[in-house]
Design a protein that fits this description.
It contains 13 helices and three strands, in the order ααααβααααββααααα. By secondary structure, the protein is mainly alpha-helical. The protein has a domain of 49 residues. The chain is globular.
């Protein structure tokens, strides 16, 4: 995690320098915050167009090493916040996807058109997205397709960062708009890290649990309290708290992977 954060800091410094240069040249890159958002991309594109140069900003990367979890990853990552692997197994069984990668080794994701509608806000971009069926106001307006990637790729053509923020990603189904909450400078940075390793996805899930203030509930096995915070006030309707408790008891009866700090 420290190495990732150090790399992100380098990237942010480079993007901030780009923003400063663009703003000084009269191309509005927005706040000099080190985040490669749509405004910065637009300014860079305008600059390159003024010089008759083709943009070299690469599209988001959804495939990488696609490394699966090792047995040691659960106790290793859980130990960071005083959790055993059984608690994490329970959360993953009830709340997470079975795999962090699909059959094409892309990061698993679910594109949410109602979130894209909200992320875009009023204006021409949202009007365009609505016209193409890529955004609508309310959840459940249309059924989800088997593969969300075609809709995501179409949404990226309208607004890349908003599109990436409108999906849940990886094992933990972390929403892109929560990327900053778990330490990434942008949704794109989170997605590309998740493309490398399911351990990074699990780390993101644990970082989200901590940022949401739900780690105490897990440590004391307050399943109702955790489900309330993770799933919302209707958690009991779907029995998330009882599912979590049952999953924990199942995994608790299975011998754990030996890990020195957990011993």
């Amino acid at each position: 995690m420290r190495g990732l954060l150090a790399w992100d800091n380098v990237m942010r410094d480079e993007i901030r320098a780009l923003q400063m240069a663009l703003n000084e040249l009269g191309f509005d890159a927005g706040p000099e915050d080190g985040i490669l958002g749509e405004r910065t991309r637009g300014a860079a594109g305008d600059y390159l167009a003024s010089r008759q140069v083709t943009s070299t900003i690469a599209p988001p990367r959804f495939t990488g090493a696609a490394k699966r979890l090792d047995d040691i990853d659960l106790p290793r990552i859980g130990a960071q916040i005083g959790l055993g692997e059984d608690e994490l197994h329970a959360v993953m069984e009830v709340e997470a996807r079975g795999s962090g990668f699909d059959s094409q080794d892309r990061v698993t994701q679910l594109y949410e058109p109602h979130v894209f509608y909200r992320e875009l806000g009023p204006g021409a971009e949202r009007d365009r997205a609505v016209a193409q069926g890529l955004a609508y106001k309310s959840w459940g307006t249309r059924a989800y397709p088997k593969d969300s990637y075609p809709r995501l790729l179409a949404a990226i053509k309208i607004n890349e960062e908003a599109a990436l923020r409108s999906c849940s990603w990886g094992l933990g189904q972390i929403m892109g708009f929560n990327a900053e909450m778990i330490g990434y400078p942008s949704a794109r940075a989170m997605v590309e890290a998740f493309a490398e390793d399911e351990a990074a996805q699990l780390q993101g899930l644990v970082d989200y649990i901590v940022a949401a203030g739900l780690d105490d509930e897990l440590r004391r096995h307050d399943w109702a309290g955790f489900a309330r915070g993770y799933n919302g006030p209707s958690y009991a309707t779907h029995g998330y708290h009882t599912k979590l408790r049952s999953a924990f008891l199942k995994w608790d009866a299975i011998p754990d992977t030996t890990y020195p700090e957990a011993a």
